[in-house]
Amino acid sequence: MYQPKPLNWKVFLTIPAVFVLLFVSNSASAVNATPSASPSASPSVGVSPSASPSPSNSPNPSPSASPQPLPTTPSIPGRGLDLSTPSSVTLLVNKQTPLTIIDWLDNPADRATWLRNIPGGRMHKAAAPNFIKLAKAMKAAGAGTLLVNSSFRAYSTQVFIHRNQVARLGLVAGEALAARPGYSEHQTGLAVDVSAAGQGCVIQTCFANTKAGKWLAANAWQYGFIIRYPKGQTDYTGYQFEPWHLRYVGVPIAAEMKNLRVAVYERYLRLPAAPTY
């Protein structure tokens, strides 16, 4: 009787194993041959590659590009100046800020102490010598002979001028030209109304177009004076354009206003407009 040979189990198990190894090897090759769908270097989570431009496209600003602080402290209204003492050259007087002592220079003793003579009037002792220098410089420059039309005014004089202008022009127009008594810079001795000999336009806006008016607008700051009521600023100052009205604030402030291109004193002081009483 035929006896079958027993199976060689080692050979039998080896054959399937070879097929398994071949299958795995081919599968791995197929996987490695497939291009990756993701970039090899992925950006950090939450950061778009375009969110970080290269330094050449976004240069860092130079430290010098930052605004430089003003020489005085701009955060303090009034810049820390004395705006209320009647004798202060930085005194503020406008339609919202009357003199604290409206007749302080009506006392003869105070007038003798604080006022000095100028050709054609009197001014605060700090303003008078600088006004005289201003007049001499203007004449030397060939811009004309400076004349004083009004300088220091007593309270009673301001009463008369205000009443006259209101009667002549009406309340609104009159008070755009003449301050109420107690609200006039002329009562401080720091203000002066001027004209020039032979040039006309006396106490008129056309004074700005005269040789003297142009010279004053360009040079008065060197002697501590500003054109107190500039053109186009009535809504801020409450007064019409007065190219003839000079106000002494001192050379440092007048020079700084010039450098900062700030024409209105209230703006320089960083204070609100004062167009009405």
Portion of residues within helices = 25-40%
Outline: globular
Strand content: 5-15%
Largest sheet: 4 strands, antiparallel
Q: Report how far the terminal alpha carbons are from each other.
A: 140 Å
Strand order of the largest sheet: 3-4-6-5
Question: Overall mean pLDDT score?
Answer: 81
Low-confidence stretches: 1-74
Tell me the structural class.
alpha+beta
Number of helices: 9
The tally of beta strands, per DSSP, is 6
Features:
277 residues, alpha+beta, four-stranded antiparallel sheet, two-stranded antiparallel sheet, 9 helices
Structure commentary:
The protein has helices at residues 9-33, 108-114, 128-140, 155-169, 171-175, 211-219, 234-237, 251-260, 265-268; strands at residues 115-118, 121-124, 146-150, 191-196, 225-229, 242-248. By secondary structure, the protein is of the alpha+beta class. Residues 1-74 have low confidence and may be disordered. The relative contact order is 0.12. The chain is 33% helix and 11% strand. It has nine helices and six strands, in the order ααββαβααβαβαβαα.
Brief account:
By secondary structure, the chain is of the alpha+beta class. It has nine helices and six strands, in the order ααββαβααβαβαβαα. The protein is 33% helix and 11% strand.
Topology diagram in text:
Layout: H1 9-33, H2 108-114, E1 115-118, E2 121-124, H3 128-140, E3 146-150, H4 155-169, H5 171-175, E4 191-196, H6 211-219, E5 225-229, H7 234-237, E6 242-248, H8 251-260, H9 265-268
Antiparallel strand pairs: 1-2, 3-4, 4-6, 5-6
